């Protein structure tokens, strides 16, 4: 019951200022997704396509050094720390955590009995302290707005022409389809009149 109340408190807080949940679309995008979530929390709404376009993408993913450079380009200051699981409550949240040795997640909240993370591969997760200790790899990165940080929105808009590509000669193609349909209807009508009568 107490855990449910704490989660509800997190959600109520989220109506004022929440950590967006952004899920990775590829295996190696967990770092980019976490960066987008934390940037969005601070007011820089950016999606994964925009991050890919701006910084590129790799099948190997990104490491902490690359994330620091990307965050600096978004005017976020970084502080990397090595710490024990019992000390994560002292971190400035939301922050990025190295998870299970090959993954990144966002630490959202720490309570007495559980920890809330945003996992770009699995969504929001409420973990017991034991589960958190098993997954946390001991490295965290705080990201906070720099002095020159400015809220912004950078999202890729996808239009119908962008999805379908340019369509050349559409008017002529439609006209040919219309004429062909008319001819088929005419042939069907003529066939109806020429069919012999069958007397049973």
TrEMBL record:
Keywords: Membrane, Transmembrane, Transmembrane helix. InterPro entries: Peptidase_C39. GO terms for cellular component: membrane. One of its GO terms (biological process) is proteolysis. It holds the Pfam family Peptidase_C39. The chain crosses the membrane at residues 173-194. Residues 24-143 form the Peptidase C39 domain. GO terms for molecular function: ATP binding; peptidase activity. The keyword Transmembrane applies. This is Peptidase C39 domain-containing protein.
